[in-house]
Amino acid sequence: MKVIAIDGPAGSGKSTVARRLAERLGMDYLDTGAMYRAVTFAALRRGIDPADAEPVARLAKAVDLEVTPGEVRVDGVDATIEIRGPEVSRAVSLVAANPEVRTELVRRQREWAASRGGGVVEGRDIGSVVFPDAQLKVYLTARPEVRAERRAAEVTGLDYETVAADLARRDALDQGRETAPLRVPEGAVELDTSDMTVEEIVDEIVRRLGDG
Ligand code: DC
Asked: Where in the chain are the domains?
């Protein structure tokens, strides 16, 4: 099984790079952040408090998730837009800190990869927890102000200060949580993408793949 693990904080360029890399290599791509967002969306829609660990964990096991590069469906409902909205973005760290939710989603991520012989998988714990034996582990970073600018350009209707504050809050939660906190996986290639174009980053990763 050939897995390429791409980890890093929000705004580090992960999603764009992982998509382009998968295209370039002719591999499938999985956005695991979209899975945590989809479970959060499902909880909010059913009126379950995202902080209520047990019902959220039960929901994570039962919910039907279809996460593809173009579309995210939750129990058959198209949630592609809503999972990126402010309500889900505010609550997702709580859901991602739930150990039972993580166990279930990690299981689904491994199943996804096993069923297709691997792929490019993007998230926060992919190289450290989900696929510690990945063929290549990449950890992307960027200066905080660059990450906030990228996120502000992606979301509409929010000013830079709000986005920057939200990003800093989410980074702290993702790095500080007990289960699978965001960190640089052992053996990962670290790239600061602040002053690199997407093509430069993808070229660099492809070059490292060749070295391995
Ligand atoms: O990459 P993103 O912003 O869509 O991720 C949404 C949230 O999910 C983020 O707060 C971190 C969390 N996450 C995680 O804990 N583990 C992953 N493998 C992917 C995302």
From this structure: 2-211
CA atoms within 13 A on the CB side of 19: 9
- Give, for all 212 residues of the chain, the pLDDT tens digit: 999 999 999 889 999 999 999 999 999 999 999 999 999 999 999 999 999 999 999 999 999 999 999 999 999 999 999 999 989 988 999 999 999 999 999 999 999 999 999 999 999 999 999 999 999 999 999 998 999 998 888 777 778 898 899 889 888 988 899 998 888 999 999 999 999 999 999 999 999 998 76
C-alpha 121/C-alpha 75 separation (Å) is 23
Is the pTM higher than 0.70? The answer reads: yes
Domain 2-211 has CATH 3.40.605.10: no
What residues flank ligand 1, with Cβ below 6 Å?
Answer: 10, 32-33, 36-37, 92-93, 96, 123-126, 170, 174
